[in-house]
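Continuing from yesterday's entry. The apo prediction looked reasonable, so today I'm repeating it with zinc ion included to see how the binding region is handled. Same sequence as before; SMILES copied from the compound registry.
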Amino acid sequence: MSDIVKYRCKRCQGQTRHQELFRKDQDLSGEGAYHVIRYDLVECLGCENIRFFKSSYSSDGEFDENGNIIPDVELYPPDTLRKQPKWMSSLLWPFDPDLGSANQEIIDLINEIYIALQNGISRLAIMGIRALVETIMIKKVGDHNAFSKNMDRFQEGGYISPTQREALDAVLEAGHATIHRAYRPSAQQVQAAIDIVENIIEAIYVSDQNRKRFSDVPKRGS
Ligand SMILES: [Zn+2]
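Holo prediction written out below.
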C-alpha cells in the first residue's frame, strides 16, 4: 500500500507526510446505522516513526459542515502530554549492586502514574499520586496508621512547608474522593497534582543530593 497522508508527527513537531503501511476496515453497520472502524498503521516519512490509528466512523456520531462523519480517533502511542522530570535518573541513587535503587518503589510508581496520564486514565493517575505521596511519607517518617498523622509528622520533620502542606492536602483529598466518592478529576487537575508532588520529590530527594555536592566547601572561620 502506498497511500500518502498528512498527519501531525509529535517527533517532527508538525504536519508531515506519512506512508500508509497497512489499512483494514471493519464494517459493523446494521439496522440502518452506519458504523465502520478503520485501522491504520502509518509511518512518518520525516523521522520513520510508526503509529497506529483506530478511527471509528458512526452515523450516530458528529458530522462536519460538508455532512461527512467526524471519526472518533484513538492513537497509539498516544501524544505524550508531559515528559517525566529530567531528575528522574538521579532518583536511582543511592544504588546498591545487590538490592538495586533505594528509591525503586518511588520510581516504579512514577512510571505507572505516567502510563495512566498518557492514556487519559485520570482516576488511576490520581490514585497513583496518592499512593506515591503515602510511600514517600512512610519512607521518611514511618507509618503512624493514619494519613493525617503521617502528614503531620512529615510537615514537622521539615519535608514540606505549610504552603506545600495545603497543596498536598488538596491532592490527597482529590485522591480520596476518587476512591470513595465516585469523583472524576479533570486532566488539568491531575496535571496540577503531579506538579505539586514532583516539586516536593525534587526538594526532598534531588536538592538534597545537590546540596551534598557542596559538602567539601570549607566552613567559615575554619
Ligand atoms: Zn516524524
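Comparison notes:
- The mean pLDDT is 89.
- The pocket of zinc ion is lined by residues 9, 11-12, 16, 44, 46-47, 49 (CB under 6 Å).
Will overlay with the apo model tomorrow.
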